[in-house]
Design a protein that fits this description.
heterodimer; A: 258 residues; mainly alpha; two-stranded antiparallel sheet; 9 helices; 2 strands; 5% strand; flat; B: 237 residues; alpha/beta; 6-stranded mixed beta sheet; 37% helix; 25% strand
Amino acid sequence: MHHAYIDKFAYQDSSIHRLDARVKFIITVVFTAVVISLPRTSVSILFCYAVGPFVVLVMGGIPLRFVLKHILYVSPFVLVLAFTGPWYDRTAAAVAFGPWIWHTTVGWLRCWSILGKFVVTMLALIALISTTRFANLLAGLQRLGMPRLLVIQMGFLYRYIFLLIDSAHHILRARAARSAGGVAFGRGVKFAAAMVGSLFVRSIDTAEHINAAMQARGFDGNWRTINRLEVRVADYVFIVIAACFIVGLYFFVKPVLG
Amino acid sequence: MVKAIKVENFSYKYPDGTIALNGVTLDVEYGECLALIGPNGAGKSTLLLAITGFVRGTGRVVIDGLEITNGNLKQVRSRIGCCLENPEDQLFMPTLFDDVAFGPLNMGLDSQQVKERVNLALAEVGLAGMAERAPHHLSAGQKRAAAIATVLSMSPKIITLDEPDGSLDPRNRNNLVKLLAGLSQTLVIATCNMDFAAAVADEAAVIDGGRVIAAGPAKKIMSDSKLMTSHGLEVPR
């Protein structure tokens, strides 16, 4: 079974891939926080901010089609939120961009601001996930102080969610193979309940087996790992460039563009 | 003389009352490869769980001179490693390195020793250079080999393997036979595949209905067509 793994491109090799997971994570968080904190009238500056993650994605060799597809996957939620703006806030507003003046409403400005921030922050997030192996990201989060239990949970979730999806696919296929002519709604609901029950029992079985495998290898409740992350010169260079980009746009370009 | 594994009159019932093992007695010498053969539901996997201390019943199980008790499971498990039937259950960490390092880290080894053990174990199973791969990116054969590496890195004296040939194609099965033949540890392998058992085992024990029906040299046991067919097995080709 082939799944759309979120870190599909994280196993490539590039200067961006080789950067320390902690560095990439912190920069992504700071970048996201700055973009989100921009005033809702600052729409044009978002184009400038988009350049950062775009360059990272290109340097990391991440196909733009993959990026756009993933942005589209999650866009419905944001689209609903964004397009409610023009309905309830129709206060007139004017946007100046150089010699051009565009007459609109605050609601529409809010709408474009939400969409712009969504796309830019998603670009940054995809850049992080696609250039960082999930295992390194987890190790980085642990070193940054995230509770160990949460990191372990995330590791198990990532490791076993695909097996669970596989099991669900197998059950659905078995049903399809025996349901020529379609299935009535009532039976479909019954089947769904049975499938959830079956998956639940399988999950418990798997959990018991994993527990046995852990105990067989001396697990005593203390989770031990080796730190294999290392901040190198390239990481410091990346930090400086990213900081100049984020701060520079905020303090020097934003006042000009408004 | 101390045996690698000594099982004496061991019996176990499932919680629903079904008898899984009934008065099992079995000896395994050091360096031996024993195949536990028998039909489905014979009790092979339960016997492996009993040998590794996961199933506690009546009778004695002695591993490398150490009788399994509630208080010494950690010591026992440092001497005996087990590979579960499904390698997906065995490979629970995000990368192969972390999985193979899991056991040595729990043994209290330092980082350098752990790295050496991981590299050695991966090289031994033919997965050198794949330490950073995620388990879900491995093929079925590689997952099986990786599961064995997770045990080898702990340098146990004894290894149990439950249906290690399951869902492997002939090429991967042959690779597994070569891998197991090259191991110096005492091996106990539960399998329903007689060709596989014949290719790897020195000794064989026929298990059926929770009992050891016959035990002895693999060639002798597995060439007895009457014994084999009467327990739902077949003579290897």
